[in-house]
Request: fold
Amino acid sequence: MILEMSLRCYPMRVHDLGEHELIKRIIKRLPSPNIGDDCAAVPLGDSYLLITVDGIHEKTDIPKGATLYEIGWYACASTISDIASKGGKPLSILASLFIPEDMSEKDVMSFLKGVDDCASVYGAFLDGGDINYGDSFSADVVGLGIVEKRHYVSRYGARPDDVVIVTGTFGTPSGALSMLQEGLSVPDYVRRKLLMPTPRVRESILLISTGLVTASIDSSDGLYESLRILSECSEVNITIDYERVPKDEWLEATFSEESVFKHVLFGGGEFELVMTARPEIVNYIGRISKLTGTRISVIGKVYEGKGVKILAKGHPLKVSERGWDSFKSQDNRHFRRNGSSSNY
Amino acid sequence: MILEMSLRCYPMRVHDLGEHELIKRIIKRLPSPNIGDDCAAVPLGDSYLLITVDGIHEKTDIPKGATLYEIGWYACASTISDIASKGGKPLSILASLFIPEDMSEKDVMSFLKGVDDCASVYGAFLDGGDINYGDSFSADVVGLGIVEKRHYVSRYGARPDDVVIVTGTFGTPSGALSMLQEGLSVPDYVRRKLLMPTPRVRESILLISTGLVTASIDSSDGLYESLRILSECSEVNITIDYERVPKDEWLEATFSEESVFKHVLFGGGEFELVMTARPEIVNYIGRISKLTGTRISVIGKVYEGKGVKILAKGHPLKVSERGWDSFKSQDNRHFRRNGSSSNY
Reply:
């Protein structure tokens, strides 16, 4: 009895609680009107300033064999993807580093050059940050962006009869990661898809400018998780056809059907857009796809109800929910490719 | 000869280079038009968006006996101080945490409550951030602010005949830190000055609104270092009277004259404003001081030339330059109270 009480009174460890539950409790305890989406959205005149920060840690977020340059690019891309998913234009990037004493100047510079090169592609500069001591290498990349209020799209607006659209293909980064972690090699373009992803800034701005997009998120935590969040936030059912989810040839040629399924739905780290939109969006998709050179696909539809339904050959699949968690995951010591879809 | 060559070719470790040299090299290698001051200043219409990030690490930045709540407040205050020193108004705060697995939920919440409470005082919210695994506890606090371009004051504008003005008193936080690190106790108000500082947002806005302030910085790295930076950036000589630098009674009653001198000039962590201004500013100081309840003092003057001259009883003192460095300092494993005056 006394043991039971003392166990109950013992302060909950973060490890026992898990990342998602911790975040829920933080938002409940410290509510802010600007929180609850991919970025904080801070009103300023007719615009929202979008601000977001993504941390990476050597022990949990960096795959075997990745260069510091690639990791810098990756961290910056994941931050910019959060801005892109809200229809925003990146304005500024900062990087704060925790550096172990024996790290070389060259590695520090490579990381920052990766951040800066990625920022430049999207019209922003690496505008500074902070330098700190660290036990091991970790870093935070901060992104600042802007979007007109009338073009801001949240996670909360999906409506019945909307279609579900996505950019790019799914599963390849996750498949590539599983091979790199085993010490296997992958083709160059596949490695690039994993480590130097291209956030969909222009695609998002063009799609949203139609006025037809109702909800949006990026797929950094995996397609299924992105759909789950949209469904939960908008209080709707989202049903997709697994066959209509675009996969590239390498993925299907390299993995078993079951592995492809796992990488496509749960892999994460693609930084593609996952959006719901009024059905008339289909009239614009071809042109936007041609303008940007990016594949855009309709993969499903929104219904009244709740949850996510995956149809394969017309039959609903039973999907056990799964997502990464910084603290609970068995894979804790590996690249977890998490933490970028939500601002908390 | 071969040894010599291999030594020369061996990549420079951050530890050998030191923080200040590393930062110089980063800015040279990755230049941005928005970098080089307390915050990044990103132009937006008639305003600058001010963005800054400050990291703290359990092993180097947290004094003995400080609570997580206090550390959260401190980290947020140091970020807001960077915005304040440019005349900015805080808009949003984010906090990204690296959390060891055995940290308690309570400690995480205390830290974030400290950040949020400090943000609230200055009209901003804690608007989110990121949660990551860490070997030990570290965190980045991001600050976003805004200032009209005509009210933005950099480090680069000090001119001969300007006066040097400062807010508050100097040396007490540094004196308090040295006692806490020895396990000694200090009065409550002194502990608060160290751990829950009050960045000078309102004071800065009022002083700058006179149109007479020519250069500004906060004193987070120590008064001498702040003056040195202003002098170097503006290419002027700055001469101050040590006797005119305000010190509080506790400091002078507790320490030897020599220790007081050290804490006042090199201690840092006060988050006071150190400004240069046209001489007519003296007509406004009394009123602004009364409005804000904050002591504002003239401590010196700007001359043609270079460097910082400290006069004590009219005689120039020889000051050997000294500052904290995350990597080179002997005090590496103690609270170093650094990294907040510069965005890099």
The CA atoms of residues 200 and 285 of chain B lie 14 Å apart. Chain B has a mean pLDDT of 90. Residues 68-85 of chain B form the longest helix (18 residues). The domain at 32-149 of chain B is CATH 3.30.1330.10 (60s Ribosomal Protein L30; Chain: A;).
